[in-house]
């Protein structure tokens, strides 16, 4: 990616969020996804920096944002090793593809290039877990067979072995001990590490992604909330009779410390592909979606959308739930099943959760439905298929519209989606790095919204 292409992507996001205006000399072209137009060229990173400095308030984190830009641009141009077969193959491919909305998604705050090469999913490394001992932690569930005993680590019998990411250990945030060697490889989230195809472990990580404020520690309450929502969703999936699978997230531990926590994630199938990887090109040539669909991209996309909307509309209309199950947390099998994980960002109509932000009214839940389920899991894929010549845009968007219309029965949800004049869009750069929460007024930086964008379900290109 050239500097001009990268600068255009960043400026497009800043304009979309209403933070700056594009200069008159910038080249633009129609968009239609989250904004009416996008910047296509004619600007440099220096110009983008000047625009941000000119518009920023005194307490905006301009320097942090510009550093994030630099980190992301370096990552975009880094030389990467060939992607290998293995349990994290699709994670590595998805990581190289980047985020469909956030132009700085490859930035990893506070990490050096050598640390990124050693631990980031796009490099597909393998390394060993570090371990520490915790006395009197909160523990739930059954630990896996590869978990060390206290004695094997030289710990006293009343200590519980906790896994620690090597970066956390290297930065001196947690003291570690020598012990059992457990090789792992990072998944797309980077802080979740694959031990086997069936078992992953999520640990705190001393970095931030998708914004300087989006730190990758683990708040103990999210483990409790995520496990509770997973149990609820499992019951609903069974009752609804839909091909939806839930990763088991009932085994976890914490020591009331965001740097001392873990989650063991058990996956019910081994052939599910993250939605984030579907548009990636494989080293062998085809795109991932061509592999998983056996070449019938239209049929596969249609079946995927049918299940995606049947499930999420049922949750919204009948159970008062909107999932923050984005393209990274939703996977799909060749059989069309959905596999969900990481449920601590859901929003429900009611409930007693550690995080009170998990309860919201219908308008708040509708915004989550649109920005996550519709934009990231459906719209971004449809536009991406068209850009790659895999499916004409009118056909891809027509499938999104028709499958959503087939699922929606509630006039409220229809008014916020299919019939809405404009659709809400997240302001990820604004909330994640640039503007402090005191000014955005957002309790959750991952649920902050900018100016609405076009409704691509109403404004379909000519067939």
Automatic annotation (TrEMBL):
Gene Ontology terms, MF aspect:
acid-amino acid ligase activity
**Ranges for domain Aerobactin siderophore biosynthesis IucA/IucC N-terminal:** 96-280
> Mind giving the lineage of the organism this protein is from?
Bacteria, Bacillati, Actinomycetota, Actinomycetes, Streptosporangiales
Q: Which residues cross the membrane?
A: none
Pathway annotation from the record: Siderophore biosynthesis
- Return one Gene Ontology term, BP aspect: siderophore biosynthetic process
Q: Which organism is it from?
A: Actinocorallia herbida
The Aerobactin siderophore biosynthesis IucA/IucC-like C-terminal domain covers 299-429
Show the InterPro entries listed in the entry. Answer: Aerobactin_biosyn_IucA/IucC_N, IucA/IucC-like_C, LucA/IucC-like
The organism's place on the tree of life at top rank: Bacteria
The name of this protein is: Ferric iron reductase FhuF-like transporter
Protein family according to the UniProt entry: Belongs to the IucA/IucC family.
């Amino acid at each position: 990616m050239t500097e001009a292409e990268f600068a255009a992507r960043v400026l497009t996001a800043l304009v979309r969020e209403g933070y700056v205006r594009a200069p008159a000399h910038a080249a633009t072209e129609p968009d239609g996804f989250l904004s009416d137009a996008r910047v296509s060229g004619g600007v440099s990173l220096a110009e983008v920096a000047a625009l941000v400095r000119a518009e920023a308030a005194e307490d905006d984190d301009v320097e942090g944002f510009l550093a994030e830009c630099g980190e992301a641009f370096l990552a975009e141009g880094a030389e990467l090793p060939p992607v290998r077969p293995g349990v994290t193959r699709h994670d590595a491919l998805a990581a190289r593809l980047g985020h469909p909305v956030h132009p700085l998604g490859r930035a990893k705050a506070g990490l050096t290039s050598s640390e990124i090469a050693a631990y980031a999913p796009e490099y597909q490394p393998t390394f060993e877990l570090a371990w520490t001992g915790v006395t009197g932690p909160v523990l739930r569930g059954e630990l896996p067979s590869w978990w060390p005993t206290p004695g094997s680590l030289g710990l006293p019998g009343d200590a519980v072995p906790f896994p620690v990411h090597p970066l956390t250990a290297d930065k001196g945030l947690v003291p570690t001990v020598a012990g059992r060697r457990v090789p792992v490889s990072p998944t797309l989230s980077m802080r979740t590490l694959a031990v086997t195809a069936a078992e992953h472990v999520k640990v705190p990580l001393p970095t931030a992604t998708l914004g300087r404020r989006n730190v990758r520690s683990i708040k103990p309450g999210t483990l409790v909330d995520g496990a509770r929502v997973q149990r609820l969703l499992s019951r609903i999936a069974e009752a609804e009779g839909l091909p939806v699978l839930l990763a088991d997230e009932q085994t976890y531990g914490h020591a009331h410390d965001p740097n001392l926590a873990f989650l063991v994630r058990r996956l019910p199938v081994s052939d599910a592909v993250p939605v984030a990887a579907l548009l990636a090109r494989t080293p062998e040539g085809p795109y991932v979606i061509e592999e998983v669909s056996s070449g019938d991209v239209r049929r596969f996309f249609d079946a995927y959308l049918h299940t995606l909307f049947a499930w999420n509309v049922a949750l919204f209309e009948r159970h008062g739930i909107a999932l923050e199950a984005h393209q990274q947390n939703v996977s799909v099998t060749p059989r069309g099943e959905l596999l969900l994980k990481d449920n601590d960002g859901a929003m429900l109509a009611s409930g007693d959760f550690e995080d009170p932000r998990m309860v919201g009214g219908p308008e708040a839940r509708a915004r989550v439905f649109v920005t996550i389920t519709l934009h990231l899991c459906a719209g971004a894929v449809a536009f991406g298929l068209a850009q790659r010549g895999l499916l004409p845009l009118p056909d891809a968007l027509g499938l999104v519209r028709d499958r959503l219309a087939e699922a929606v029965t509630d006039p409220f949800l229809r008014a916020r989606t299919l019939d809405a004049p404009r659709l809400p869009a997240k302001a990820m750069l604004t909330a994640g790095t640039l503007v402090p929460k005191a000014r955005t007024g957002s309790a959750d930086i991952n649920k902050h919204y900018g100016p609405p964008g076009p409704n691509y379900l109403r404004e379909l290109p000519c067939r």
